[in-house]
């Protein structure tokens, strides 16, 4: 899993995993595995208060309402952070009671209910940017670059609501659970426009750049750039500038190992174009299609 020699004597190494089996397979002793339990009532109230009151002393009425609100999070830190951030700008008892009523009547259970209410509190512009991120971070960046407007203020608001976070380069990061819920609701509400955006990826690209994009989407994700370059050169064209253009438009990326990466939705759009015979020559990546093609040559 990692090289122990990289750490000094006496270092404590903490590994976080969703599946206990992954830790066991990599040699972690079962006695060294700790299962993170939900927070108890007092811990939940403290964490919620950190986000909701931001160091200010709440009234006795709000403290009592806070106890009721925290029940909806089920002891999950993510839900408590989202709820607390949502209520941080509400100061009156009436506003809190109104939010309690919304939580009680919202569909779903636990964290799903909390996220649904938090999303409903966003204005249309905030909601669109949130769904852009939830549906596809890479597609969202491409959309914002193409429009010439990066929604910095809206992203900051979403961060303050604990719906997203920012990495060291201020790029949006979204929790897997929040992303799953956001993607599902975004499609249902018609906000997830990344699929429509991806259909316009080829606009402005020449034929060689289009072919490089489709080659990567269909066959070369996870393969080394150097390996693919040999193939393209044998086909009679140099792919260097095409790769640079696709990278600049955030259609593809190259990781630290020199291998191609691509957002799943952009990949699926490329493959869909090939399946519909919208572009030629065709590429085959599916095992069943490959078997069918070989059968046709007999």
From TrEMBL:
Protein origin, superkingdom: Eukaryota
GO terms under biological process: defense response
Residue span(s) of domain Disease resistance protein Roq1-like winged-helix: 208-275
InterPro entries named among the record's database cross-references: Apaf_helical (IPR042197), Disease_R_plants (IPR044974), P-loop_NTPase (IPR027417), WHD_ROQ1-like (IPR058192)
Record-linked Pfam families: WHD_ROQ1
Coiled coil: none
GO molecular function: ADP binding
PANTHER family assigned: ADP-RIBOSYL CYCLASE_CYCLIC ADP-RIBOSE HYDROLASE, LEUCINE-RICH REPEAT-CONTAINING PROTEIN
Protein name: Disease resistance protein Roq1-like winged-helix domain-containing protein
Native species: Nymphaea colorata (pocket water lily)
Lineage: Eukaryota, Viridiplantae, Streptophyta, Embryophyta, Tracheophyta
């Amino acid at each position: 899993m990692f090289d122990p020699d990289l750490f000094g004597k006496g270092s404590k190494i903490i590994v976080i995993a969703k599946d206990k089996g992954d830790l066991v397979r990599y040699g972690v002793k079962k006695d060294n595995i700790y299962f993170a339990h939900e927070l108890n009532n007092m811990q939940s109230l403290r964490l919620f208060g950190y986000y909701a009151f931001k160091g200010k002393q709440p009234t006795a009425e709000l403290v009592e309402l806070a106890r009721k609100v925290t029940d909806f999070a089920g002891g999950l830190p993510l839900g408590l952070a989202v709820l607390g951030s949502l209520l941080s700008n509400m100061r009156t008892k009436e506003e809190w009671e109104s939010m309690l009523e919304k939580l009680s009547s919202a569909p779903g259970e636990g964290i799903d209910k909390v996220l649904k209410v938090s999303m409903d509190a966003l204005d249309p512009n905030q909601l669109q940017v949130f769904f852009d991120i939830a549906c596809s971070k890479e597609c969202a960046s491409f959309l914002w670059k193409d429009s010439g407007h990066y929604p910095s203020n809206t992203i900051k608001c979403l961060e303050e609501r604990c719906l997203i976070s920012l990495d060291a380069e201020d790029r949006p990061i979204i929790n897997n659970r929040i992303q799953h819920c956001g993607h599902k609701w975004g499609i249902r509400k018609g906000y997830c426009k990344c699929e429509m955006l991806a259909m316009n990826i080829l606009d402005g690209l020449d034929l060689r750049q289009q072919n490089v994009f489709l080659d990567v989407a269909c066959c070369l994700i996870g393969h080394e750039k150097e390996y693919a370059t040999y193939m393209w050169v044998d086909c009679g064209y140099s792919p260097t500038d095409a790769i640079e253009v696709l990278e600049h438009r955030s259609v593809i990326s190259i990781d630290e190992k020199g291998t191609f990466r691509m957002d799943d939705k952009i990949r699926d759009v490329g493959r869909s174009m090939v399946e519909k015979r919208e572009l030629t020559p065709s590429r085959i990546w599916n095992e069943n299609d490959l078997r069918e093609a070989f059968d046709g040559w007999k």
